[in-house]
Amino acid sequence: MSTAELFDDAWSPSGWRSRPAGQQPDWPDPTALEEVGATLRALPPLVFAGEARTLTESLAAAQDGRAFLLLAGDCAESFHQFSADAIRDKLRVILQMSVVLTYGSGVPTVKVGRMAGQFTKPRSSPTEVRDGVELPSFRGDTINDFAFDELARRPDPTRLVRAYHQSAATMNLLRAFAKGGFADLARVHAWNQEFVASSPEGRRYDVLAAEIERALRFMEACGIDLQGELALHQVDVWTAHEALLLEYEEALTRRDSITGDWYDCSAHLLWAGERTNEPQGAHVEFLAGVHNPVGVKIGPSAGPDDVVALCERLNPQRHPGRLVLFSRMGADRVSEALPPLLRAVAMSGHPVLWACDPMHGNTFVHASGYKTRRFDDVLRELRGFFAACEAADVSAGGVHVELTGDDVTECLGGSEEVLDEHLERRYETICDPRLNARQSLDLAFEVAALLRR
Ligand code: PEP
Ligand code: CO
Q1: Which of 358, 359, 366, 450 is the most core-located residue (most Cβ within 10 A)?
Q2: 349 Cβ contact partners less than 8 Å away, ≥ 6 residues apart
Q3: pTM value?
């Protein structure tokens, strides 16, 4: 399909500028921001339009139960915590979770990293007060620094260029790992890191990995040429982030030389967050015109009409795989808030991939001051989501989680329980609390069981 058929011809990458945009910083020097836009426009795209189209096809499969989406990574990537090991360990957890999900469900896992561009954060308040000092809130490393001092918190547009280069380096390593042997299924045991392997879910994973190895040996013994089966040796890992800082997204939006269509080449999939998802707002206006697959976070305050309006706005041609709706209701509200939305979208006939973000509706501030989530609430929301989808006869098509490959103590609970008093041990996130590698694997087993049902 051409641009003219699929989208409004009048759309332009800068059209969002005439709409209200929430969650933007107060840039002290708008000219400097414009200069950075010009710098970014001259830099190469990070992804190729053809890749975004392939992802759209995979999401279309997930929409009708022939695949399952796993979108996972940091709440916010960081300039300071940037290392090859951290990227490798995150990918390792994603690969482990994918094996568990695919083995349990019998369908392929579409792997998407909240990586290589997930830097900018919406905040509940524009300022932060500590000991009587009020400073601008930290909005992600693309904008200002986490450190609580006046200079660090000043929005600095040169950070956009640094984010671009870190994204390029991250993307490069992800591609190398995905295609260069690290993701080879023959290494299924090696993805189990030591501190994970000793836990109950790590042992459970080892049993599963041994079964997979036995199956591979069996196939080989039957005369199947496993060496020649590319799918056993390489994977696709796609990237995604919240399209919040629209100057950055606009600058990386390019016309595809093959189709002539616009693609946001900063990532394969972009989404609008819960605080910037108004159908008439700037963020949705921007996403409406790019041909990447796009997502929207849907919270408990969204009504059926809002959600159908978003579908109309973002996917008027009703293209399968184009639109993902991430339900993030909270464990206590999902059973009552989600069913009317599922019904309304089904009634409208819009093809949508429904996925569950079981994290963002379950965040609270612990008495110790740490922002955290209970692993049990995360699982409870997942169960509520699956039950609501089943009752509405809609495919539960994916999960969206915040995780890290490290042994952090940011979310409470899990089988090797993170207790209230453990939070301070390894609380390293610069934004929302993430599942550690064990909790992530635990969650994958839980989702696999839900998918089998
Ligand atoms: C996030 O994904 O980090 C986030 C801010 O989510 P939401 O928009 O759903 O609150
Ligand atoms: Co978050």
Answers
A1: 358
A2: 318
A3: 0.97
